[in-house]
Write a structure and sequence with these properties.
This protein is mainly alpha-helical and about 325 residues long. Among the domains are: about 110 residues, Leucine-rich Repeat Variant (Alpha Horseshoe); about 90 residues. The protein is built from 20 helices and no strands. Helix 4 packs across helix 6. Keywords: Phosphoprotein, Repeat.
Length: about 325
């Protein structure tokens, strides 16, 4: 017991605090996606950092110190000669980014970090870092700061954050980076007109389509949900989406083995056919086999409570596209 208490003792410097923060969540650096920081871990980390700061523990000072850690990392400049030392520095950088994300859930802190230049540092150094564990934490920090903060969103957009995040979403080899980057994209474009225009100009809908076709389950779910949200809130962009062949792509996704994110795909199709002759014609194309698929899907899921919304989307889409075309309901309303 005494030994355990000594192990739980607060470290004596900031580097020790940050390294322990990363060790506590090191599983997130592998293929598995990270779990949220536990409340116990958050409180312990706050207490440890406050003790280390010794009189300079205001949150602004803590953010400045974390920025110094990130700046000192210089991950893109390290060569093979510094690998052993670099591993320690990367651990400190990861811990600094996690702690900044926690602090910046407070909107005032997010604004202060922007003013201090922390977001510019994150974009220039962390999003381009050779370690995926740093890249995804950088994207997470951007998302934490941008969420519900128009001032921060506009700053990030003006600095070119969106195309960098779209590129990470589309092609980063680390699965967690792709998910966190898309989360940051969502925070920059939802209910943000400037962000949506930038999203359109950088072919963001194509990035979402490829995300839905990936083998990353969380990326598929978040991509389909963001697509549904954007075309629901901004129906004026449906023609743009339809001109890309989105209906054909979405139906091809539905023909893959069933997954929970198909609910969002069906919702998007329902939105695309509403008040849109082009959307209806696309869905009615016999080559897609959509009507048969909808009948079979609704029959397979009928009576399973967790899929009732998906069943309702099937019925709604079938009614909009195929009502009256054939007399047989094929069990849709069983």
């Amino acid at each position: 017991m005494a030994e355990d208490q000594r192990n739980r003792r607060h470290p004596q410097n900031l580097q020790g605090v940050l390294r322990l923060a990363v060790e506590a969540g090191s599983a997130a650096d592998g293929p598995a996606l990270p779990e949220p920081m536990s409340e116990e871990r958050k409180e312990w980390l706050k207490g440890a950092l406050a003790e280390v700061a010794k009189g300079q523990n205001s949150e602004v000072e803590q953010m400045k110190e974390c920025m110094r850690v990130v700046l000192r990392d210089g991950g893109c400049e390290r060569g093979r000669e510094g690998e052993e030392e670099g591993e320690d520095e990367e651990g400190e950088t990861e811990g600094a980014l996690e702690f900044l994300s926690e602090l910046c859930e407070n909107l005032d802190n997010a604004r202060d970090l922007m003013t201090l230049g922390g977001l510019d540092l994150c974009m220039s150094q962390c999003l381009n870092h050779p370690q995926g564990s740093v890249r995804w934490r950088g994207a997470q920090l951007i998302a934490s700061c941008a969420q519900n903060m128009p001032e921060v969103q506009c700053h990030l957009l003006s600095k070119g954050a969106l195309p960098k995040l779209l590129k990470l979403t589309d092609s980063d080899p680390h699965p967690t980076v792709r998910v966190k980057a898309l989360y940051a994209v969502s925070c920059l474009v939802r209910e943000q007109e400037v962000g949506l225009r930038a999203f359109l100009s950088h072919d963001g809908f194509s990035v979402l389509m490829r995300g839905m076709q990936s083998d990353n389950e969380k990326l598929r779910t978040k991509s389909s949900f963001l697509l549904l949200n954007l075309i629901t809130v901004h129906p004026e962009h449906k023609d743009t989406v339809l001109s890309m062949g989105m209906v054909q792509q979405l139906v091809s996704v539905l023909h893959t083995p069933h997954s929970s994110f198909h609910e969002h795909v069906l919702g998007a199709l329902c939105c695309l056919v509403e008040d849109s002759p082009l959307g209806l014609r696309d869905c009615q194309s016999p080559t897609l086999g959509l009507e048969e698929m909808l009948n079979q899907r609704a029959e397979d899921l009928q009576g399973r409570e967790e899929y009732q919304e998906e069943v309702e989307f099937c019925k709604r889409l079938r009614s909009a596209c195929f009502c009256g075309r054939q007399p047989d309901d094929s069990g849709m309303d069983r």
